[in-house]
Amino acid sequence: MFTFKVLKNDESTNARLGEINTAHGVVETPAFMPVATHATVKSMTSEEIEDMGFRILIANAYHLYLRPGHKTIEKMGGLHKFMSWDHTITTDSGGYQVLSLSQTRKIKSDGVVFRSHLDGSEHYFTPKKCIEIQESLGVEIMMCLDECPPYPSTKEYMEKSIKLTTNWAKLCRESKTRTDNALFGIVQGGVYQELRKKSAQELMEIGFEGYALGGLGIGEDPENTYDAIEGTLQFLPLHKPRYLMGLGKPEDIVIAVSMGVDIFDCVIPTRNARNGTLFTSDGKLVIKNAQFAEDERPIDEGCECYTCRTFSRAYLRHLYLAKETLVLRLLTLHNLYYYSQLMKEIRDSIRHGNFPNLLSRVKSIGGY
Amino acid sequence: MFTFKVLKNDESTNARLGEINTAHGVVETPAFMPVATHATVKSMTSEEIEDMGFRILIANAYHLYLRPGHKTIEKMGGLHKFMSWDHTITTDSGGYQVLSLSQTRKIKSDGVVFRSHLDGSEHYFTPKKCIEIQESLGVEIMMCLDECPPYPSTKEYMEKSIKLTTNWAKLCRESKTRTDNALFGIVQGGVYQELRKKSAQELMEIGFEGYALGGLGIGEDPENTYDAIEGTLQFLPLHKPRYLMGLGKPEDIVIAVSMGVDIFDCVIPTRNARNGTLFTSDGKLVIKNAQFAEDERPIDEGCECYTCRTFSRAYLRHLYLAKETLVLRLLTLHNLYYYSQLMKEIRDSIRHGNFPNLLSRVKSIGGY
Q: Contact, A50 vs A88, CB < 8 A?
């Protein structure tokens, strides 16, 4: 079971309030998916992610295939049970990781041969294999195997690449055996508008339960990113969810929502937390800075997360400088709470017709 | 305010049930103090420590003096507020760390000159300074500055060392300005029974609110350790709490309790957790072992900690091999829960007159 419906369209932007229904419950959109690459949002328990209000997260098929193995997870009752998460799960196919992490890899028309970044063992990833892995894991949203060419890539290379991605998407579609979940196609094409259009149209001909925007935020100018997002969205069906892959500073999120994106994932809140960079209502805060050595205030005085209700900047800075792992949890919790609140505010503002105000407020903070 | 009373003496051993009262509440004894060296029990929040049932923990004056500085903590409202722990705190003086961690150090009759292990800066630790630091932190139980000679040490060296420790203890006692907390003397003397007796008697002449057994578990034979504990305890007053420093495998704890020890601290539950070694009712379990790769059971089927209620051995092994920091939390939580239950069982068994049964049961598990 997988359904999506738009509950309300914003009047002055393309933002929309929606709802995804899966076998693991309801996901209100626009939604942010915390990144749980290895079946854990780094340093957090699934319970904490749930308590913050998240109802969807994203794991990675490539990583879980290599370790502990999708068959192991299947035997343990599937990914939900394995990581104790009773809500919706998306898995990225791992196409991006196959190409970025593996030491040697060879792209063929029917898949990729690569060596594991963990132990050098050789593997053959095909569209069929990729679906088999994701079906074993038992997730609600599967992603097609795609090629994400680096930026910059020539138009010629990108054209060939789109052809490959379309072909793989078709094979993924044909390999899908489960009927209780969704498969999303991934639109590529870099910053070449006509290629993104072509990619979108080819995928729509195959037909997917949702469409993702891939290959963005990898080095191109932000203006080109936004143009590419807007340019792609206009060709995608309105009644299907749109997922912007891997991009998600607060400003990116509100702008992409205003263009009509429904789903996001990004390592920024969790990775920044581990680097001591925090999101606040006044902009970013770098916890190691000397100015916080004797600062009794919480990270953000308006924030109601456990970290802000409990600990001072001085204490967090101390933990950070002492390299105490507790700080990873506390800062990650804060940043993800910030994101959960941001998404809630976005949904509420669309519901109540004041999304444009929120959009300009978040854009004016900037500075991340 | 600091009081201690013995509520019940075991009939067939020297074990005793007791109660410490401080400005931060009641501590039932025998008690185990989780180690919070840098003002955090590694990877745990104070709330989790409290939820497990602990009402006392131990921080380290030397480490907090160097970073973030005791004056900073005092300005932030004291150590309790700083780390959000509203129960009793002990601080180790840091004598042991001054001698073990600092790159260069020189012991003088009135203190120690040493270089910081963090930045090489030179510091002068005197008994007076040591008390000043602990009073700034605002803890309930302060420890005297002592010298903990390595094992083995000659009797001649040990005799000189005891003299120094007694002298420092006297200076600590004289430096104490607060009347709302306790100062414990530390009995040294290594495995030389007559020197431990001498050390104990000299400290008792000065007079302290409690007495600690130091310099044990540093390489000597376990038999010598137990002899030294028993040998020391017979000279200590029955109406004062006795604290065995740094030693605390489950077996050590029950044996020392049977000899009359009231308070323990040890890094074993937390450090072992970080190394993937877990305490269970059947003995130790090494989570990385291949045999757990597809084991759906919790670490310990009889355990009710969050980790055991929520996650399988297979999942924990996966996190451990993937070096995911979440596993540090989950395993530490389990091991500390094991200790909290052990201490509760010890107290209940003394209360109900069946401590000897518990003693033989824990001794029979062994194997840590």
A: no
Torsion of CA B337, B284, A44, A262, to 10 degrees: -130
Q: Is A252 a catalytic residue?
A: no
Specify whether the CB–CB gap between B218 and B197 falls below 8 A.
no
Amino acid at A170: K
- Answer whether A311 touches B (CB < 8 Å): yes
CA distances for A363 relative to A343, A368, B72, angstroms: 15, 11, 37
How far CA B201 is from CA of A242, B148, B205, in Å, comes to 78, 18, 6
Token reading at B78: 């004291």
* ipTM of the shown complex: 0.97
Q: Do residues A104 and A114 touch, judged by C-beta distance below 8 A?
A: yes
Residue A287's closest CA among A258, A265, A250, A319? A319
> Cβ distance A61 to A134 under 8 Å?
yes
Amino acid identity, position A232: T
Cα torsion angle, B162, B165, B170, B171, sign: positive
Q: What phi and psi values does residue B287 have, to the nearest 5 degrees?
A: -65, -25
- A positions 214-243 inside 8 Å of B (CB): none
Contact B314 A39 (CB under 8 A): no
Out of A82, A311, A324, whose CB is closest to B315?
Answer: A82
Task: Say yes or no for a CB contact (<8 Å) between B329 and A43.
Answer: yes
Type of residue at A118: L
Q: Which amino acid would we find at residue B333?
A: L
Q: What is the DSSP code string of A310-349?
A: H--HHHHHHHHHTT-THHHHHHHHHHHHHHHHHHHHHHHH
Can you list the alpha helix ranges (DSSP code H) found in chain B? 46-51, 61-66, 70-75, 79-83, 95-101, 127-137, 155-175, 193-206, 222-233, 250-259, 268-274, 306-310, 313-321, 326-351, 355-365
- Give, for all 368 residues of chain A, the pLDDT tens digit: 999 999 999 999 999 999 999 999 999 999 999 999 999 999 999 999 999 999 999 999 999 999 999 999 999 999 999 999 999 999 999 888 877 876 678 888 889 998 888 998 999 999 999 999 999 999 999 999 999 999 999 999 999 999 999 999 999 999 999 999 999 999 999 999 999 999 999 999 999 999 999 999 999 999 999 999 999 999 999 999 999 999 999 999 999 999 999 999 999 999 999 999 999 999 999 999 999 999 999 999 999 999 999 999 999 999 999 999 999 999 999 999 999 999 999 999 999 999 999 999 999 886 55
Question: Is A265 a residue of the active site?
Answer: yes
Q: Are A76 and B322 a contacting pair at CB < 8 A? A: no
pTM for the model stands at 0.97
CB neighbour list of residue B275: distance below 8 Å, 6 or more residues apart: none
Asked whether A143 and A212 are in contact (CB, 8 A), the reply is: yes
Contact B11, B354 (CB under 8 A): no
Tell whether the torsion through CA atoms of B288, B291, B293 and B296 is positive or negative: negative
Query: In which element (H, E) is residue B20 found?
Result: strand B16-22
Distances in Å between the Cα of B93 and the Cα atoms of A99, A161, B74, B120, B324 are: 54, 65, 17, 20, 34
Q: What is the CA radius of gyration of chain A?
A: 20
Phi, psi torsion values for A192, nearest 5 degrees: -85, 105
CB contact under 8 A, B76 and A296: yes
Helices first, then strands: H and E counts in chain A: 15, 16
Contacts of B361 by beta carbon, 8 Å cutoff, 6+ apart? none
The token pair that represents B317 in the structure block = 């092994």
Q: How many CA atoms lie within 13 A of A227 on its CB side?
A: 11
**CB contact residues (below 8 A), chain A span 2-31, against chain B:** none
Helical (H) or strand (E) element with B33 = strand B31-33
Which residues are CB-neighbours of A303 under 8 A, at least 6 positions away? A280, A281, A334, A337, A338, A341
DSSP-assigned letter for residue A133: H
